Amino acid sequence: MKLSVPFVQLPLHFDAERLSEEVRAFDKSCWRLHPQKFPGNFALPLISVNGNPDNDAINGPMRPTPYLEQCPYLTQVLHRIGAVWGRTRLMKLSGHAEVTPHADVSYYWRERTRVHVPIVTKPTVRFFCGEAEVNMAAGECWIFDTWRSHKVINADEDERIHLVADTVGSEGFWGLVNRGRAPGQPGFESWREEAVAATLEECPTLLYESVNVPVVMTPWELQEHLVFLLGDVNPHQYLATAQQVATQFITNWKMLWAQYGTDRTGWPFYREELNAFAHAMEKITAPLMLVNGTKVMDALRPMLLDVAIAGAGKDLGAYEPRRPVVSGSRPAVNDRDKVFDRPVFIVSSPRSGSTLLFETLAQAPGLFTTGQESHGLIEGIQGLHPAHRDYESNRLDAAAVTPVRMKELRDRLLAKLRDREGQPASQRPIRLLEKTPKNALRVPFLAKIFPEAQFLYLYRDPRQTLSSMIEAWQSGRFRMYPDLPDWNGLPWSLLLVPGWRELIGRPLQEIVAAQWETTTRILLDDLEALAPGRCHVARYDAFLADPAAEVARLCGALELEWDRSLDGVLPLSCHTVTEPASDKWRRHEDLIEQVIPGLQATLDRAERFIAR
Predict the structure, then answer these.
(1) Which helix (DSSP H) or strand (DSSP E) does residue 47 occupy?
(2) pTM (2 d.p.)
């Protein structure tokens, strides 16, 4: 929720020692990793959908988990604050961990505020919001402006634990806020906190959310969100165009609402209108930035596009829609990489069209590439070729990085890099663009070697990808390890995935399905573990349909310049086997449909990932 000030301390003070006793009673096994696996971030669910501690979603009836039922004083604390409670958790930061800079821009946060009650903390734990900074002391009660960029740093070796409760509030709650104090503002010299001690009375009854997302968003709510969002955009020549597109979208939505309301028969028409609006806004808003440093589309999707038809069954919040602010996505000047400035690595499953995307983006001014894939540059380093590791796979994680290997790879790349005119770089740092299919299994390795690396995940319809992989194997042009020990059948083609020995003797369609699934699953694990702001998404179908719009969007996301026309048909990539066509995959349709059911879980996960 956007507030007029960064922080407000409510006039309440709780018994931190008593709260700590209840928290310390929980076994370590009760704590969950953060859904996006941010290092050192853990949660213990107190209120969740249907009281299920394993459900991290934000849509559905919120109810107490068994953990809250074990905490009588914690329940009293929530009751005294007095609100209707949404998702509520104990949040733990390990020693020297942090909550990375971001702004909360999703639908969930438009009308909810986040209450913090520190339980275990030290003065060295610092909370930053906008330009303000506070230490929330144990037992205090705070809210903050989640719309601004914010972060938390635990500079101590000991862990930090807060009660973190989400709420739309209540009359009593907002009365407390009105009597709260904003740090740094005058007029609160006589301000006092009410001490709230534990009682032996029966646990009070709390109020919980039961309705939190619309089945179909009303045109009036939709209009309110768009007016708010576009009213918070920094001045830009494209802003008026975006407002015109939004106005027409609202008009069309009102027409559909008058016809269908929330009736299911209208959902396909709402979806069609929503998709058209999203496509139009992607073209317009690439250069538009909110005042909090968030790109407009990074706010529009979780605030409106993902929830305008929530009744379609989408599970919201399993991964928090956290998007970094631009100012927080790059290290401080003194910590910057002096040689490689935010190198871009295109990563995808094999045969997803990454070569075409690479060859197109390589035309951006100021980008440098090796002009080809870097198989030899990487695998030529001692210990990195699969043959040095019993042909286990092409997988390389952070443990494979040594100072010697780091220096050698950086030096090898630097010696080969040229710009679009074939000229070497004359200044440092430089922007690198790299595309090697095996890098889909090397994200942690590359992220450690290049601390500012950006990863561009290219998604292509898996049926098209599988068909192209079958074609690649059959062509004989992509033989990666023709003398792979123990392997029989067609020479091994494309990247070498973990568990490849289990594929010996299997039909080709099952081999490529395993290659796709293993690569995609590992890649998504690695991308989700990255700090916010280091991963971007491109869709192959959108790129082919409107190359100019997609390249403009990607250049905006990656902060690249672009000065060339893409009005014509894109040329074929250098690795094209046969002429592309949207239905070309159907020549292998019978084989592909045999393996698709076994890939469904990863297919669904990939689609959720690109929709975030």
Answers:
(1) strand 41-49
(2) 0.57
